């Protein structure tokens, strides 16, 4: 349920416990994917996500380091965007198991316009065994 009438949640994945990527000396993360319907532009949606992060006082003291919350826009319809603060689809979407597992759960037939293949195929192609993703039971 959302307080914002301009954003409707239409699907959500389970919650996953995932190993950190890039900066390995930190606790595991909790990740999930939420599918929404909105008439907001991608840029306006980004402003709203940043406002939520600010409200929850999230601070990225170290790039890729621990934080309270980090909201990313993974895709926006079939839009391709590249600006200083927004790139769609998300630039590392097809290299991150912690993104793809919940994404494929929510949208099993979704297609990556950047890699020109279904996200489930991107997920199968990841061979890095250090990218652990487990269903969270906490």
For this entry, give a set of tags.
Alpha-Beta Plaits; single chain; 3-stranded antiparallel β-sheet; alpha+beta; two-stranded antiparallel ribbon; 22% helix; 138 residues
Quick structural gist:
This protein is of the alpha+beta class. Helices cover 22% and strands 20% of the residues.
Describe the protein's architecture and organization:
This protein is an alpha+beta fold. It has one domain: Alpha-Beta Plaits. 22% of the residues lie in helices and 20% in strands. The protein has 3 helices and 9 strands; from the N terminus they run ββββαββαββαβ. The protein has a 3-stranded antiparallel beta sheet, with helices on one face. Strands 1-4 form a two-stranded antiparallel sheet. Helix 2 runs antiparallel to helix 3. It is globular. The two termini are 21 Å apart. The model has no long low-confidence stretch (mean pLDDT 88).
């Amino acid at each position: 349920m959302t307080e914002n009438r301009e954003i409707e949640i239409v699907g959500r994945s389970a919650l996953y416990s995932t190993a950190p990527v890039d900066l390995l000396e930190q606790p595991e993360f909790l990740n999930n994917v939420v599918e929404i319907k909105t008439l907001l532009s991608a840029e306006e949606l980004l402003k709203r996500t940043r406002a939520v992060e600010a409200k929850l006082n999230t601070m990225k003291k170290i790039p890729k380091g621990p934080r309270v919350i980090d909201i990313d826009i993974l895709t926006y319809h079939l839009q391709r965007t590249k600006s200083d603060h927004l790139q769609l689809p998300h630039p590392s979407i097809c290299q991150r198991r912690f993104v793809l597992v919940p994404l494929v759960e929510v949208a099993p037939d979704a297609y990556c316009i950047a890699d020109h293949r279904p996200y489930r195929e991107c997920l199968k192609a990841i061979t890095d065994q250090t990218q652990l993703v487990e269903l969270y039971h906490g």
